[in-house]
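User: Some background: our group keeps a shared notebook of sequences we're curious about, and every so often someone picks one and asks for a predicted structure to add to the entry. Today it's my turn. The entry only has the sequence so far, pasted here. Could you supply the structure so I can complete it?
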Amino acid sequence: MIRNGLEPWHLLIVGIVVIVLFGSKKLPDTARAVGKSLRILKSETKAMKDDGERGRVERAGERAEQPEEKSERLGERRAD
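Assistant: Of course. Here's the predicted structure to add to the notebook entry:
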């Protein structure tokens, strides 16, 4: 019995005990809070991805401009 560990019916019993202990009044509120937290997490991760992509585009634009700036700087140094 101990060798098998937790089986699916054990989890079913634990779920029933949780429902009986917390009752039907608190479960919808808890589910609503979990859903709201997941939506916030999803929107924040999407915002982070968007910021990362914008940063890549900006860095790529800076890289394209840098060789021109460097040549201008070198030209100025040679003129001095």
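Suggested note for the entry: The two ends are 88 Å apart (CA to CA). The chain has a mean pLDDT of 76.
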